[in-house]
Specification:
It is built from 13 helices and 19 strands. The chain has 425 residues and is an alpha/beta fold. The protein has a single domain, classed as Metal-dependent hydrolases (TIM Barrel), CATH 3.20.20.140. The strands form five sheets. The protein has a five-stranded antiparallel beta sheet, covered by helices on one side. The chain has a five-stranded parallel beta sheet with strand order 11-12-13-14-15. Strand 14, helix 9 and strand 15 form a beta-alpha-beta unit.
Amino acid sequence: MIVTSLDPVRLVDEDLWIAGDRIGKPGVGTRIPCSDAVVVPGNVCAHTHLYSALARGMPYTLEPPRTFLEILQRVWWRLDRALDPASVHASALVGGVEALLCGTTTLFDHHSSPSTIDGSLDLIADALGSLGVRSVLCYETSDRDGPACARAAVEENRRFLRARRPLARGLVGAHASFTLSDETLAACVEIGDGLHVHAAEDGVDERDAGALHGTTVVRRLAEAGALDERTLLAHGVHLGDDEIELTRAANATVAHNARSNMNNGVGRARVEALGPRLALGTDGIGSDLFEESRTAYFRLRDDGSGAAADWPLTRLAESARLAGRLFGEPLLGTLVPGAPADLVVLDYHAPAPLDEQTFGGHWVFGLSSRNVRDVMVSGEWVVKDRRLAHVDEREIAAAALDEAKRLARRLDEIDPHAFAPKGGV
């Protein structure tokens, strides 16, 4: 069974053909038998932070953070300053391995390593490329570490955007309005090529925009020329009606990160109001889009929505359409002739009828990453029989463990970040 499209759901009961790096017409190329499996388009994660991959379980000796700002100051803004080239590369390898093994073939990564800015995106692209992961990368520009770091971040984005790779593209990365001066935001906009920025993840972002700039987060972005169809807004939890209208009118994309929002206690995004360009990300909580999409759906249902079980599929399809626009591949996320051959073979024997009307229910209540057997990216097998095709997973994990120990020792020497928004908390 082949799921040729997620939005709308289209299924065909036949074998799949691969011609080079494309889905071939029947009878053209190499045949993949599909009688004993379900084949779906590769999942796309529209927002993640691969640099967090080595942080899980890391010893924490400070007083527990009580607010979102304290989470940044005491955890993530300490971790990113501890990163060096080796740990950046190791984090990307670990995150890429886990993405492929759970059926995610494209990652939108939002990276930060203030002590290792120049060339950091190449380290990530090299790591992901060695695994066969498709990616859209950016560096998180911010003024929180001073003007020199902000300028270096702008230049890292500019440099990486010039050098295209077969499986990698770039956006201009920015942290959030409350850590961006007008000058730094303008420098990001001047580069062009689309902005990937956290927007109203927590109320602190909106309060700062109001107190310091006399406006809202999204209106500030719009007035700076940073809001258009190439813009990717992460989270959008605290967007007001006016901001949602601006976002929709600009055809900007919002990446919804349900599990991260729950973990950080920042609130519930108004996903049904945000419009059709709503994609799904994980914000660094792994890369399992089966789990992420299911959690987002249950959260939506808990809010009283009458959303049908195919809601997660439309959001995953939107993530793929976003990637397709950046790669110049409008068929990415489908398995029709001419589409990029990014696909996942699921070892799934349906215990109930499986058709176009019921597939959403199987996705939410039956399918999961445990069913991932084989993964192909751009016509090349990167996972076969649940094993990575190009690298040894155990060797990567062993090397990452050594890096994680080094990272933890460096982290112990770094104090909580002193940055606080000028507009108040």
